[in-house]
Amino acid sequence: MVVRLQDLPRRRYGMPGNAACPGCPEAMGLRYIKMALGDNVVLVIPAGCSSVIQGIWPKSGINFPILNIVFASAAAAAAGMKAAFEMMGRDDVHVVVWAGDGGTADIGFQALSGAAERNDDIIYIVADNEAYMNTGIQRSGLTPYGAWTTTTPLGKKEHKKNLPFIMIAHDVPYVATASVGYPHDFIEKLRKAAKIRGFRYIHLHAPDPVGWRFDPSLTPKVAQLAVKTGMWPLFEYDRGVFRLSPFSRPYKDPAKRLPIIEYLKLQGRFRHILKKPDEIKKLEEYVDRLWYWIDALEKAFKPAEKARELLGKA
């Protein structure tokens, strides 16, 4: 299904009065959710930036019904809410977790993994801005190697946790990566996920101007450069079939990827490594390993019919 601009709703889902920073990727992503799924959506939001950008109670700058929940419990709360809707005969309601990287990869991972193992019928979206932005830009398990944060002033020494691959290993029906720089791709994946029953996981790359130290007008450009340099491949795992998304397919060829330095130099958080070739080489090697695993997954889950047969999901 190809998403066309003229087919998208014109309603405003991010309302005046929300407290998002200029260039906020989460405000962008939240709009795309309702553009994709319509009005029968309830959000479950653990502690994070999106807890704040809603505005001051009793009003809200985000045009959604929302349950705000503690850091560790978003997936469990969403599973319970979905069960309650089903008991009411409301199978048409999409219960969507909208969580940050800390509430997903770190503090919230136990609930996320449990919901995936049970195959709870929810959509889980992580808006990954690669640090604990709301509490002071501390490093998370999804902060990339070399990035400055307030708790890694000399640059993080560990690579980013590869959470999409971890979720594929849970053998859930649907896993996808997306980017705020490619809204049509994100919306298409949301609509595809909405037609599938069971646990669905979408990992949304969300560059943050404040924590990443770039001009707020550059959010889409930084997001697109992550894809074009191979740092953030767009793909989906759909019921036993792994495929690259069209926007990332050209970059399977390393020669077609832009140099990683083009992505790094726009971000103040990488300023200290720009003149350190050995540090940049470590990121280049990380990208090569990432694409090695993508190639392995493509080969492992082809042809589609055989993959579904082997997994019992034909």
Description of the structure:
There is one protein chain. This protein has 314 residues and is an alpha/beta fold. The chain has one domain: Thiamin diphosphate (ThDP)-binding fold, Pyr/PP domains (Rossmann fold, 3-Layer(aba) Sandwich). The chain has twelve helices and eight strands. The protein has helices at residues 25-37, 49-52, 74-87, 102-106, 109-118, 163-169, 183-194, 209-212, 219-228, 260-264, 277-300, 304-311, and strands spanning 41-46, 66-69, 94-100, 123-128, 174-179, 200-205, 235-238, 241-244. α3 (74-87) packs parallel to α5. The longest helix has 24 residues, at 277-300.
Put the structure in a nutshell.
This protein is of the alpha/beta class and 314 residues long. The chain has helices spanning 25-37, 49-52, 74-87, 102-106, 109-118, 163-169, 183-194, 209-212, 219-228, 260-264, 277-300, 304-311; strands at 41-46, 66-69, 94-100, 123-128, 174-179, 200-205, 235-238, 241-244.
Looking at this protein, list some descriptive labels.
single chain, alpha/beta, eight-stranded mixed sheet, 37% helix, globular
Fraction of residues in β-strands: 5-15%
Number of domains: 1
Structural class assignment: alpha/beta
Corresponding CATH superfamily: Thiamin diphosphate (ThDP)-binding fold, Pyr/PP domains
How many helices? The count is 12
Order the strands across the largest sheet as they lie in space: 2-1-3-4-6-5-7-8
The number of strands is 8
The geometry reads as globular
